[in-house]
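Hello again,

I reread your note about wanting to compare the complex against the isolated chains. To keep things tidy I'm splitting this into two emails, and this first one only covers the full assembly. Below are the input lines as submitted, including protein chains and any nucleic acid or small-molecule components. They are followed by the predicted structure of everything together. The single-chain runs will come separately.
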Amino acid sequence: AQSVTQLDSHVSVSEGTPVLLRCNYSSSYSPSLFWYVQHPNKGLQLLLKYTSAATLVKGINGFEAEFKKSETSFHLTKPSAHMSDAAEYFCVVNDMRFGAGTRLTVKP
Amino acid sequence: DTAVSQTPKYLVTQMGNDKSIKCEQNLGHDTMYWYKQDSKKFLKIMFSYNNKELIINETVPNRFSPKSPDKAHLNLHINSLELGDSAVYFCASSQDLMGGFHSEANVLTFGAGSRLTVL
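Full-complex prediction:
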């Protein structure tokens, strides 16, 4: 069985500071991993995906994530938060099961 | 031209009623899904169909019955609605299911959601 654990249910940052949203996975084989974003009262959108080509994956809106097999992690980062980044973020492993989500709040 | 469309967007109904939510995708994908998102934003996969065949059937009350008349449609029928069924239901599709390691095939495209309120 495969699963993901999002380590923080809520992360709060100030605008212009770095963002780190943590995700650990469990898989018996090399997984595909995804981050999706859900803005308030909106549907879900793919941010980025890891499918083996490179361990550092760049996504939309300046987000990136690094696949670390030794740490079984796929943390999402962004160098500088923007107010529009406030949303719910989900880490997903390739059998389409979602993590519990991390709510990102961005303070002015 | 919406890729994954769900109807209705809002549904308010009484306990005990039967209701359906429809989903259609025009992406030519082989796999469709239903997810339930509760008030705490937790997204739980309910069902998945691949080419009209049921692939994933999570622990869901059998009051919930998916129907896939063709691979472009996956409808969700709910019998004897209960208060706890109130949630947002998302339909999604992907090119394939567990398409493997190199997988564009696993990328999900979501509908806008259907908010069900049971009174």
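For quick reference: The mean pLDDT of chain B is 89.

B.
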